[in-house]
Automatic annotation (TrEMBL), chains A, B:
<comment type="similarity">
    <text>Belongs to the isocitrate and isopropylmalate dehydrogenases family. LeuB type 1 subfamily.</text>
</comment>
<keyword id="KW-0100">Branched-chain amino acid biosynthesis</keyword>
<keyword id="KW-0560">Oxidoreductase</keyword>
<keyword id="KW-0464">Manganese</keyword>
<dbReference type="Pfam" id="PF00180">
    <property type="entry name" value="Iso_dh"/>
</dbReference>
<keyword id="KW-0479">Metal-binding</keyword>
<comment type="subunit">
    <text>Homodimer.</text>
</comment>
<dbReference type="GO" id="GO:0000287">
    <property type="term" value="F:magnesium ion binding"/>
</dbReference>
<dbReference type="GO" id="GO:0009098">
    <property type="term" value="P:L-leucine biosynthetic process"/>
</dbReference>
<keyword id="KW-0460">Magnesium</keyword>
<dbReference type="InterPro" id="IPR019818">
    <property type="entry name" value="IsoCit/isopropylmalate_DH_CS"/>
</dbReference>
<keyword id="KW-0028">Amino-acid biosynthesis</keyword>
<dbReference type="GO" id="GO:0051287">
    <property type="term" value="F:NAD binding"/>
</dbReference>
<feature type="domain" description="Isopropylmalate dehydrogenase-like">
    <location>
        <begin position="5"/>
        <end position="355"/>
    </location>
</feature>
<dbReference type="InterPro" id="IPR050501">
    <property type="entry name" value="ICDH/IPMDH"/>
</dbReference>
<keyword id="KW-0432">Leucine biosynthesis</keyword>
<dbReference type="GO" id="GO:0003862">
    <property type="term" value="F:3-isopropylmalate dehydrogenase activity"/>
</dbReference>
Amino acid sequence: SNSFHLAVMPGEGIGLEVMEAAATVLGAVEKRFELSFHQEHIPGGAHHYKETGAILPKDGLERAGKSDAILFGAMGWPDIRFPDGTEIAPQLDMRMAFELYAGVRPIRAIPGVPPVLAHERWKDIDLVIVRESTEGMFASRGKGEIIDDKEARDTQVITRKVTEQLTDFCCKLARNRRETRGTPGRVTLVDKANVFRSFAFMRKVFYETAAKHPDIDARHHYIDAMALDLVRRPWDFDVLPTENLFGDILSDLGAGLIGGMGFAPSADIGAAHGMFQPSHGTAPDIAGKGVANPTAMILSVAMMLDWLGERHGSSAARDAARAIELSVDHAFGTMNLRTYDIGGRHGTRHIGNTIAELI
Amino acid sequence: SNSFHLAVMPGEGIGLEVMEAAATVLGAVEKRFELSFHQEHIPGGAHHYKETGAILPKDGLERAGKSDAILFGAMGWPDIRFPDGTEIAPQLDMRMAFELYAGVRPIRAIPGVPPVLAHERWKDIDLVIVRESTEGMFASRGKGEIIDDKEARDTQVITRKVTEQLTDFCCKLARNRRETRGTPGRVTLVDKANVFRSFAFMRKVFYETAAKHPDIDARHHYIDAMALDLVRRPWDFDVLPTENLFGDILSDLGAGLIGGMGFAPSADIGAAHGMFQPSHGTAPDIAGKGVANPTAMILSVAMMLDWLGERHGSSAARDAARAIELSVDHAFGTMNLRTYDIGGRHGTRHIGNTIAELI
Ligand SMILES: CC(C)[C@H](C(=O)O)[C@@H](O)C(=O)O
Ligand SMILES: CC(C)[C@H](C(=O)O)[C@@H](O)C(=O)O
């Protein structure tokens, strides 16, 4: 099928602005590739919570779940919190509710974006962090204990089932990347198995599962060494599955290497659902000014099209994904577009319009 | 007093080599500064475990505990493990046994070391990560549960007592740095309080304690944002206390920014004891070749002298610490010494001898 039903959840802050740019790009894609999108808007976020007492409309989750894919902007606001002081982050709820176990966060150097690393090989950065997104430390969200104002605890949970799913997902991803981009087909689990039993267990299950993919080069790396090596030689890595909180940390580090959160797209994938969102948040400091960088959101649209294309056998959707990526590279690498976050003067709309035109 | 009893635990692998270079430097310091060191060697490590069934000699901990300071090289070996698969890491045991709650890991750009970041301000990197080293996630070491080969758990513990100690320590450190180096006197707790109650608790206790140090600018930062900002603008940070595992990750990331683990010293400080060691491990791949970079070990000696000087009112020890730091800067910045880890050809002994001569 070439016709898709999208749940569009722009959220708040710059989420609204980058989603507008994404919509412009989606419009261009519809025209050029004989694709059609039915967009259903679903509000939500911290402001929604403040106004209505709920983060999402009552049927919001259900409606999102019925779509072919969810496009998510950003939600959350520093001053609006739950009574226990933790933040309103519906994307976390959705990862759990839809069992979106694979948080796919590609870190790819975009030509033209000023280099962050001094090493000349920075241009070769092309890796994917796959953040397990339903358990790990985040299994403790809302469940931590505080005892007598003296001590507090949170417990990390690693299950065989999810680790197997994650490993299978990563092996397939590495295989797919090898076929389409010539990468080495390597999957490196990032853990801390030298100290923690839960990670030793994760590693064991990882290797057991990876053994079913003999064409894939399966390895492991310690989280601390990986934090170092992502700074020293990120071009040496391919697909990096890891625990939820480790993935949270490493994917921001990775975004830093390629120019910041404005260039880091993401996909949260489960067996039955896919949610696509930029790695950045609502950025209250710049919200409403039209200066947000929509590249991460636009590249998330490309990830969505790739996933829809694969799932529904739509080569038009896959072609559209490639066209978006190439247009982004052209806009920054050849046309010298420069967003505010890298010291330029091209605003959110300008970037969205330019990429739409290139398509 | 100007006479100190040191427990010297070189360990294994390159630990032995860098400790030799450190001994040369200590010898020079003795001559130049009217200090005297009584060095008591204590063996230990993974090979010791393999040979004797114990990581340290029976009275090893006790002897180390009676010294004025512990100089530690590196211990641990990939192939020699505990029956449960976790690594032999006596430094972890010692942090617990001696309640060395403050893992002080300075990240300072050394002139002459090739820049890792493209930004011209890389030279201004001068921050200290203070890794809480007795609880946090590491409270779960050896205690994680594996249930039916299906699920595994590890629990992080944050206590009020240790968080208060850590905060006091960091406020004093920031004050001292402000006085001696002109830094801004800022302490930024790194946490994930937006999601986890244990971190929300840690942050609460942090601010309660920091309020007793009104001259210190106390702030907080999320771990993911910090991983990004350490890549984007590390020169903006001063003292960064954080949970044990976060500190493990961030200090390796930080070491990456200044040329690698070979340049990253550390001090593990408690109320009654201090242990000083390079942040690197035993490096089995290069052990025995004389090519290890001893700078981190030598700078750890400087941290030891600073601490002894402060504790025992020895200005000679403090002067010696400064002399070591200046000699390191001179060796790399002016004499163009280049260790193998940064593409040079100056071996372990050569660096040790040169710094000793400069002193
Ligand atoms: C907003 C926050 C709770 C969230 C997370 O920690 O997962 C964000 O950092 C992310 O990476 O999606
Ligand atoms: C060797 C390892 C167990 C240790 C740790 O995790 O603390 C090391 O990485 C460190 O930073 O001292």
